[in-house]
Specification:
Length: 232
């Protein structure tokens, strides 16, 4: 498997897994090493993804660490030499196939996790399922987080994580009923939505006081929900 087909996040996780296997005198890099590397990366997308499917992330991380500590050690091996195990190589191939089916140009951490849950044969996959991670739920969570986008950039995961970290999805809040209603600006919201929906000669510029702009920006997601969206 070519590492240059991995996203930067997956490459970083694999490098961390390699360091972990070397530090513990393990002969091969196994799925458990890679999963632990992804779970301990607070800036990655795996922990939020597992939380979204309702997994007990804290318990899972503890169980994975216990499995890692129980792995047999090999003494006398050449320093600095550790290779990907057959099981991990097989899972990379499964993930590659899944990525192609999704229209991705790179294998991402979420797709590798999906391959591990759906096709894993060792204890690592069993721990994920015991923590409440199912293939169907994980697939739905990936689709929801991606929003229909494919991974065609090795830095796609990092960019998506930055957006999730520093921005607020007002449309999702409106769909979940968590956005406070905008009072007294119904006509402005309705008119601005009609302008935004124009299919020709549409290059609008919103010019108003900052307070009005904030109210309109919060009013649009509610107005564009499936129930209230006006007919074009």
């Amino acid at each position: 498997m070519r590492v240059d087909k991995f996203t930067s996040r997956l490459q970083m996780a694999l490098a961390e897994a390699q360091s972990l296997a070397l530090a513990k005198d393990h002969q091969y890099i196994e799925p458990v090493h890679l999963l632990y590397a992804m779970l301990t990366n607070d800036d990655g997308s795996v922990k939020p993804l597992l939380t979204k499917v309702g997994a007990q992330v804290g318990r899972l991380q503890a169980d994975v660490k216990e499995l890692l500590d129980a792995a047999p050690q090999v003494s006398g091996s050449s320093e600095g030499e550790v290779h990907v195990s057959q099981e991990l190589a097989r899972l990379f191939n499964v993930a590659d196939k899944m990525a192609n089916q999704r229209g991705d140009s790179y294998i991402s951490t979420d797709v590798f996790l999906l391959a591990l849950v759906s096709s894993g044969k060792d204890m690592t996959a069993k721990l994920l399922k015991a923590a409440g991670v199912s293939e169907k739920a994980l697939q739905q969570a990936i689709d929801s987080i991606r929003g229909g986008e494919s991974v065609n950039d090795p830095n796609a995961e990092s960019k998506r994580e930055a957006l999730d970290k520093y921005a607020v999805d007002l449309t999702q809040l409106a769909e979940d009923g968590k956005l406070d209603p905008v009072i007294g600006r119904d006509e402005e919201v309705r008119r601005s939505v009609q302008i935004l929906q124009r299919r020709r000669k549409n290059n609008p510029v919103l010019m108003s006081r900052a307070l009005v702009k904030r109210r309109l920006s919060k009013g649009w997601p509610s107005a564009l929900s499936p129930v209230k969206c006006p007919t074009v």
